[in-house]
Structure formats: structure tokens, C-alpha cells
Write a structure and sequence with these properties.
It is a single chain. With about 70 residues, this protein is mainly alpha-helical. Helices cover about 90% and strands about 0% of the residues. It has 3 helices and no strands. Helix 1 runs antiparallel to helix 2 and helix 2 runs antiparallel to helix 3. It is elongated.
């Protein structure tokens, strides 16, 4: 799932690059940049969730607490 999100982001960034080279309207480009920001935030959350799940599975409670703290602070 993470790889799919990253591939989607790469595609979005290439699209923005193309829009810039085509001298597209600023508002259109900014709309796509906003979409990339949201996608990156989603990727960040997924990485944290994945990390938390790994540590919960290992039952290392101290490490789980640290990961949860990091997740809360994002």
C-alpha cells in the first residue's frame, strides 16, 4: 500500500512539472500542489500506523509508547 501511495505521488509531481512547463494557470497548479500535500499527509499517517502495528505485534510496550507519542505529535 505504501508503494502505491508513493507511485501516485510521483505521478502527481510529474503532472505538476508538466503543467509548469506548459505554463498552465497558477490556480490549476496550486490545486494540484494542494492535492500532493494531502497525499503526503496520508502517506505520513500510513507510515506511522504501520510502525505502531509492528511494535504492538512485538509487544515491546516501552517502544509502543514512544511510537504512539510520535504519532500524536504529528
Amino acid at each position: 500500500m505504501l508503494k502505491q501511495r508513493i507511485n501516485r505521488l510521483v505521478g502527481q509531481l510529474r503532472g505538476i512539472e508538466k503543467m509548469i512547463s506548459e505554463d498552465r494557470d497558477c490556480s490549476e497548479i496550486l490545486q494540484q500542489i494542494t492535492a500532493v500535500k494531502k497525499a503526503i499527509n496520508g502517506l505520513s499517517k500510513e507510515v506511522v500506523i504501520s510502525d505502531v502495528c509492528k511494535f504492538i505485534a512485538k509487544s515491546d510496550s516501552k517502544r509502543v509508547e514512544k511510537v504512539i507519542e510520535r504519532a500524536i505529535n504529528i
